[in-house]
Design goal:
about 280 residues; Rossmann fold; 10 strands
């Protein structure tokens, strides 16, 4: 057998194998996100160019605004999904009722968990590993871990303030919606160096009354009001409860950033802003 013929035979054997290896490394090419936090994670992992569909609530990054929409967060349009012909749909743990429908449509899925800061960071690595962007995803995840490590140094060696975290309230303070231990917002607070004034895990986001708030008497109040009214006006409303420690000491912090309702990389980075509010010195 001539050397030239041997080379031809070797190429014929190896080329299909090499092609399959490259394809496996490339991973899925048409990815659909079923949550705003998932969309942000996909772009953070370097997979933005492969995202072909998002929900109607996905507004970040800006590139996501121009992508085809597949309906609501928990109510996707299966017709829209089929039309996009995705080779991967990334879902959250909250999509357990949706996943069987996707499976029936022969759509591969990847479930990630955004109920903790570690879960958010790990989801970057998971989508990267699944879609052939492992290196960039790992770098992004490690950067967030280093960021949290620096944040935890801000209040090191100091007493942890007792904090109430709110996610909405009535103007008359008759109803206040708080974050209890075990939630992603409680995890954010813990990483920033605060102690949740609530202790029960029975209800993740309980409703409090003004009387209940006065009994808790937190040292710091953190109010998240994404897209809400003027921050200064909202902060001044707290003067009506002037007997609270947090109000007397001027330690009521109101944040109106939209991303505070989306547990994704920007939410993780917010830990530094929160830590500096808890430890202003």
């Amino acid at each position: 057998m001539s050397a030239r013929l041997s080379i031809r035979i070797l190429c014929a054997v190896l080329l299909p194998l090499c092609s399959s290896i490259v394809s496996a490394q490339d991973g899925p090419r048409r990815i659909v996100s079923l949550a705003p936090s998932v969309t942000e994670v996909l772009f953070e992992a370097g997979l933005g160019p492969r995202v072909v569909g998002v929900t109607s609530y996905c507004r970040y990054p800006e590139a996501a605004l121009a992508l085809p929409k597949v309906g609501g967060y928990l109510t996707p349009s299966y017709e829209a999904l089929v039309a996009l012909a995705p080779d991967l749909v990334v879902v959250l743990a909250e999509h357990r009722d949706v996943e069987p429908r996707l499976s029936a449509l022969k759509m591969p899925t990847l479930r990630v968990d955004h109920r903790s800061l570690d879960g958010i960071i790990q989801s970057i690595e998971r989508v990267g590993a699944r879609a052939g962007s492992a290196t960039q995803a790992m770098e992004a995840a490690d950067a967030l871990r280093r960021h949290l490590a620096r944040v935890q140094m801000i209040g090191r060696g100091r007493a942890r303030p007792r904090v109430l975290m709110l996610f909405g309230r009535s103007d008359d303070f008759r109803q206040l919606y708080a974050a209890a231990p075990g939630t992603v917002h409680d995890d954010l607070l813990a990483r920033a160096g605060g102690e949740n004034v609530l202790t029960s895990r029975s209800v993740p986001y309980p409703t409090l009354s003004a009387e209940g708030l006065l009994r808790l008497d937190p040292e710091v109040i953190v109010e998240f009001a994404p897209g809400g009214p003027d921050i200064g006006a909202r902060r001044r409303q707290w003067n009506a409860l002037g007997s609270l420690q947090a109000v007397k000491m001027g330690r009521v912090h109101v944040f109106a950033d939209d991303f505070l309702a989306v547990p994704a990389p920007r939410f993780v980075r917010f830990a530094e802003t929160l830590a500096r509010a808890l430890y202003p010195q």
